[in-house]
Write a structure and sequence with these properties.
mainly beta, five-stranded antiparallel sheet, Neuraminidase, four-stranded antiparallel sheet, 3 helices
């Protein structure tokens, strides 16, 4: 799942395009249920200017993806700006970070890897590393020259510290900036990072496993031995945090996707305050892919799909958008089946417009849509909005067909 987006100071939209990998070396990845993802130079950031013109920056960036489908890409995930207009680029990875390059495979030889991980997605041999040293990092970035300056290396930190104590995996997935701090959500490492933009210090919070009743596991599902752990009669599923947003209170809010086998209605939102402890803020969601706050202080929760990804086509799951008010009221802004298929990123523009990237899996699929909230919202499950297709915005083929319209008119 890819295509995170953000709105720049002038209203320009920037969309992460992790790419489709290439014909380089490969590694098995937990993001693909251990199918190999292979290296190439196909990533970029798509820039959508206020007048609708599009171009790509940071072109030919390192990328990993399944072959030949190009699905499940990892590369340039997101571009964000600080209050002074400086840009920061996050690069993902999706696998054992020791496989990234010669330096990390040598580093990883000094730190243990869990036996189950060795059995399912082991370290590469030195000659088979991916040769992608720019992945799994946070950079300060120059959008005019393409120059990048490293701030933090998630790959090395995961190898040497493994914050969640589970598999040694990293996939820096989501970036948000507030004040002098970058907040990065690592969906592979199950952790939330707060990193000073000058690189002077950082903190990390591990996101706890999601304990579910064994009944949520489909009885006919074949599981590799040892894949799921039982804790006090519950099954421990990896959290897989995917979206982060800083609230009006200054706390970090983190949404989770919930790992394999992707049960429905189990995703949580955590709140992390100054003490660094994750506390469940809300629950009962499905496949959260991103979070953001609008100008009115409402938390917008984007669901990649409203049903388990095991039940349908990963490229077209029926996603939705939910508004969560400070008093806990939930309002469904876009219901499942209304045009947010496999929705991956949400951003709020300078005028409080909502933009969502959809069909975020695979090449030639991605599009951006603008959500028109229209009239005053009403409590769910009633939907009160329309969706306006802008275009493919350089992400792939043109958005085909018209989205279902719940409003008689769209706002200009």
């Amino acid at each position: 799942m890819n295509f995170k987006l953000s709105a720049g100071p002038d209203g320009t939209i920037y969309v992460g395009e992790p790419g489709i990998g290439g014909d380089g070396n490969c590694q098995p990845s937990p993001s693909t249920l251990f199918q190999p993802i292979c290296a190439g130079n196909s990533g970029s950031i798509v820039r959508v200017k206020p007048d609708g013109q599009t171009d790509r920056i940071f072109k030919n960036f390192q990328s990993l993806a399944e072959q030949p489908s190009g699905n499940q890409g990892a590369g340039p995930q997101a571009l964000e700006f600080d209050s002074s207009g400086n840009a920061y680029l996050l690069a993902g990875f999706a696998g054992y970070p020791g496989n990234r390059d010669a330096e990390t495979i040598a580093l990883g030889a000094n730190y243990p890897v869990p036996p189950q991980q060795v059995a399912t997605f082991p370290p590469s041999s030195p000659e088979d590393v991916l040769n992608t040293p720019n992945l799994a990092k946070l950079f300060k970035a120059d959008i005019e020259t393409g120059a990048i300056t490293e701030i933090f290396d998630f790959g090395k930190y995961e190898i040497t510290n493994n914050p969640d104590g589970g598999d040694v995996v990293t996939n820096p997935y989501d970036l948000t900036i507030s004040g002098d701090t970058a907040y990065v959500i690592d969906g592979g490492g199950n952790a939330a990072y707060s990193i000073k933009l000058d690189g002077s210090s950082f903190d990390v919070t591990a996101i706890p496993d999601n304990l579910v009743d064994p009944s949520v596991i489909p009885p006919d599902l074949e599981l590799p031995p040892g894949l799921l752990e039982e804790v006090d009669g519950k099954i421990a599923l990896q959290s897989v945090p995917t979206g982060g947003a800083v609230g009006p209170d200054g706390d970090l809010y983190v949404g989770e996707y919930v790992g394999f086998p992707y049960p429905e209605d189990k995703a949580r939102i955590f709140k992390i305050g100054p003490d660094g402890e994750p506390v469940v803020y809300a629950e009962g969601f499905n496949h959260i892919s991103d979070l953001t706050f609008d100008k009115d202080g409402n938390l917008l929760v984007l669901q990649f799909g409203d049903e388990s990804q095991l039940t349908g086509d990963l490229t077209a799951l029926p996603g939705s958008l939910i508004q969560l008010s400070a008093d806990g009221t939930r309002t469904t802004l876009v219901k499942a089946g209304e045009g947010l298929e496999s929705a991956d990123g949400v951003a709020v523009g300078p005028d409080n417009e909502i933009y969502v990237t959809v069909r975020g899996v695979g090449p030639e699929n991605g599009s951006i849509v603008r959500v028109d909230r229209g009239a005053e919202p009403v409590p769910e499950p009633t939907s009160v909005l329309g969706v306006l297709a802008l275009s493919a915005m350089g992400l792939g083929s043109k958005f085909k067909g018209k989205l279902k319209q719940k409003m008689q008119k769209f706002k200009a």
